[in-house]
Design goal:
Structural class of chain A: mainly alpha
Distance between the termini of chain A: 68 Å
Helix content of chain A: 55-70%
Largest interface: A-B, 55 and 54 residues
Shape of chain A: elongated
Largest sheet of chain A: none
Radius of gyration of chain A: 21 Å
Number of helices of chain A: 9
Strand content of chain A: under 5%
Oligomer: homodimer
DNA sequence: GTTGCAAGTCACCAGTCGGTGACAATATCT
DNA sequence: AGATATTGTCACCGACTGGTGACTTGCAAC
């Protein structure tokens, strides 16, 4: 072992990230973390003061909420505000679904055993949405009667829950679903959700509407 | 102790319900459950085969998802389809927020440590939504171009996530939120969400639209 | 009453958890 | 070189976990 404090510190955080991504925060323990990082568990207490310190450091230097970027420079090239909002939300959903650590940190907000990751996640999400709305407002005219932050928050929450549920149903599709039933984890079901998303944004954000 | 198998069985399930409601499924253990139920833990294995059996029994005989009822008999008395959908969703949200066991079982769907409560929750939710849509369709004319199940699923998911997040933020409001920020756990923020909900249902479900 | 079976209790197992003190090895500075 | 402070290792602690076998208590049928 190279006696390098920064290196082992980084190894601990790295291992914590992958362990959390794999099994969730409740399954993260001092022993397993030290084992995965290839160091002794006493170093976790020395460097971070305990597991919670590791999670705090993890939240401080990792991306816990997808940072979607508004596509550059085609300000008014035919793309409407409704389409822009929809595509941003779908991008956020895709990035969230693909990032196991993001998914787990999103779940950590909801668990009764709170961790230091939860506030970091909430803050990153808020900042990201604020940035998204700010750039949208500079590039499109937002009708004054529509509450864009509320709309984004509502739709983003719905998509987030879909992503969380989908991440837990791996092939164990439940049968007996009536034809009427809609399952976002199914391609057909997801297409309906996408269509509904488009319908909502179009109905609310098109200027000719009320 | 009254040597009554059914009584102790019921006591175990009852204690399991309150323990889960209080601390979540991950905090439910054989020892604590037996202690709370006032019986020996070996009975848990004898009667249910283990903790998972208790959770399965719990899911089978408890309400894990609010069963909101369509208000009776005022079919066309001025209440529009949009208003009906909105009020049903708000009722569902209120019932979900008030039921600790419901909240915890909803979280259990998202945890990596799956339990036998998750499928029961999902099934109850599906059935409830299907019933809600069915009665809505009999009492109101639903425009053919609108996918009512998808709309309900999307809005219900958003409200569910709001309820889950709110149940975990007990007074530890985070500061430094910009004026632009929207927090559903705040009265003002929640009012904006409600308004947005109304705007969406109205924009999509009013016949004169599109 | 006496017998038999189910209900309930107790003691214990092996394993894991988080956490700590004493110690060895290495790097750094004089 | 030697002295010192830091980095890493090891062994151990008490507490708790899920789980099981051997036991005692009580009800109910005979």
């Amino acid at each position: 072992m190279t006696r390098d404090r920064f290196a082992t510190r980084a190894a601990i955080i790295e291992s914590a990230a992958s362990l959390v991504a794999a099994g969730g925060i409740p399954h993260l323990g001092v022993n397993s973390l030290a084992d995965a990082a290839g160091c002794d568990k006493v170093l976790i207490y020395r460097y971070f003061g305990g597991l919670d310190g590791v999670l705090a450091a993890l939240g401080a230097e990792r991306v816990l909420w997808p940072a979607v970027e508004v596509p550059p420079e085609n300000d008014d090239s035919g793309v409407s505000l409704a389409e822009a909002v929809q595509s941003l939300l779908l991008e956020e959903w895709a990035a969230l679904s693909a990032g196991a650590l993001m998914l787990q940190s999103a779940v950590s907000e909801l668990e009764s055993s709170r961790s230091s990751l939860s506030p970091a996640t909430a803050q990153q999400r808020d900042e990201q949405h604020a940035r998204m709305i700010a750039t949208l407002k500079t590039r499109h005219r937002v009708p004054p009667y529509v509450d864009l932050p509320a709309l984004v928050e509502l739709l983003s929450s719905a998509l987030t829950l879909f992503a969380l549920r989908a991440s837990q149903t791996h092939g164990d599709r439940r049968e007996g679903s009536p034809a009427q039933h809609l399952d976002p984890a199914t391609p057909a079901g997801w297409r309906r959700i996408e269509k509904m998303l488009g319908a909502i944004t179009r109905a609310l954000l098109h200027a000719e509407h009320q």
